[in-house]
């Protein structure tokens, strides 16, 4: 009987749960990891995708700026000969 009693541990040796602030921080970190994993799921090169998005945003910004400056008319015009 004495051998089985070593399996039962007292309450002093129970796992200590982290306080609320530590637990919140761990949950935030886990949520951030899941968000990053979901964003990159199925993408072979995430950096390439990020560069393409930045390029598209820059192009859109330049088009908006050109429309504001030119009053909607472009400087280049098509001519027929």
From TrEMBL:
It comes from the Eukaryota. The gene is 109401774. GO terms for cellular component: endoplasmic reticulum membrane. The keyword Transmembrane helix does not apply. The keyword Membrane does not apply. It holds the Pfam family SVIP. PANTHER family: SMALL VCP/P97-INTERACTING PROTEIN, SMALL VCP_P97-INTERACTING PROTEIN. GO terms for biological process: negative regulation of ERAD pathway; negative regulation of retrograde protein transport, ER to cytosol; negative regulation of VCP-NPL4-UFD1 AAA ATPase complex assembly; positive regulation of autophagy. Keywords: Lipoprotein, Myristate, Palmitate. This is Putative secreted protein. Residues 18-81 are annotated as: Disordered. Residues 30-67 have a biased composition (Basic and acidic residues).
């Amino acid at each position: 009987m004495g051998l089985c009693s070593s399996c039962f541990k007292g309450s002093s040796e129970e796992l200590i749960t982290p306080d609320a602030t530590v637990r919140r921080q761990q949950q935030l970190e886990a949520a951030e990891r899941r968000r990053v994993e979901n964003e990159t799921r199925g993408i072979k090169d995430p950096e390439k995708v990020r560069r393409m998005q930045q390029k598209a945003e820059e192009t859109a910004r330049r088009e908006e700026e050109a429309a504001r400056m030119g009053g909607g008319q472009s400087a280049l015009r098509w001519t027929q000969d």
